[in-house]
Amino acid sequence: MARGKIQIKKIENSTNRQVTHSKRRNGLFKKASELTVLCDAKAWHLCDPNAEKVFKALNKAGVNFDTRLRPLLRALNCDHRFDALAVSAEERALNCDH
Amino acid sequence: MARGKIQIKKIENSTNRQVTHSKRRNGLFKKASELTVLCDAKAWHLCDPNAEKVFKALNKAGVNFDTRLRPLLRALNCDHRFDALAVSAEERALNCDH
DNA sequence: AGCACTATCTATAAATC
DNA sequence: TGATTTATAGATAGTGC
After folding, report:
1. Which residues have CB under 8 Å from A37's CB, separation 6+?
2. Does residue B62 approach strand C to less than 7 Å at its CB?
3. Which strand (E) or helix (H) includes residue A27?
4. Helices and strands: H and E segment counts in chain A
5. Are A41 and A73 in contact (CB under 8 A)?
6. Tens-binned pLDDT, residue by residue, of chain B (98 aa)
7. pLDDT in tens, A10-67
8. Measuring from the CA of residue A23 to each C1', which nucleotide is nearest?
9. Cα–Cα distance between B59 and B28 in angstroms, integer?
10. In this structure, are residues B84 and A62 in contact, taking their beta carbons and an 8 Å threshold?
């Protein structure tokens, strides 16, 4: 791109790799949030207590949903599927027999 | 972009919205996989039984990790954090007391 | 370790088939 | 409805500070 085309393979120089990672990651987030707005991804069901449990577990694990995953999942139309996941986690907890 | 600049707000025409969604989603996946390769995201720890449980739960919920989320999570360096999530889920199951 | 610049590359909006 | 084209907007590699 830019001042010269690059091949899509691992960047061996670690400094360049880190710089590229930072730049492209920001670009990825921007595009994800644009897609979310343009295509009207529906709101998250944070009011759903089952979903809330999963989000809390993710936060506890260090995954910041709001800033890192939410716009991406929205853009990919994956967000509503996490409701199903939340239910699945809930069922697993209820079926725990030890 | 392209043949005219657009504002980042909901595309009201549903046909255009769908077309844009499809195009931009593909672009997002492409950029995510490029970033994964360029910046050498490390491999998933699928051999980890704790992580495996989470992946299975996600698949059961209809989230196709391999095609939808894995390249994105890799690109975002979130993948290793899912190991922590897996452990968290495991602990929660073990601490289930009813 | 950022942040700015900018020439160049890539993504894509609209058009066309 | 879906594929292809193309002109333009947007992203970014290399650079300098």
Report:
1. B8, B9, B10
2. no
3. helix A14-38
4. 4, 0
5. no
6. 678 899 999 999 999 999 999 999 889 889 988 998 998 765 443 334 455 555 665 666 566 666 666 777 777 776 666 655 555 555 545 443 32
7. 999 999 999 999 999 889 889 988 998 998 765 443 334 455 655 666 666 566 666 6
8. D12
9. 21
10. yes
Asked if residue A69 has pLDDT above 90, the reply is no
Dist. CA B10–CA A36, nearest whole Å: 9
Query: Hey, is A80 helix, strand or coil?
Result: coil
Tokens of B32: 């995510």
Do B28 and A27 make contact, defined as CB atoms within 8 angstroms? no
Q: How many residues does chain B have?
A: 98
Per-residue flag: A16 CB under 7 A of strand D: yes
Q: Give residue A31's identity as a one-letter amino acid code.
A: K
Q: Which two tokens stand for residue A98?
A: 């030890």
Quick one: CA torsion of A80, A94, A55, B73, rounded to 10 degrees? -70
Closest CA to A76 of B23, B36, B25, B60: B25
CA angle B13, B16, B22 (to 5 degrees): 135
Cα B50 to Cα A66: distance, rounded to the nearest angstrom? 25
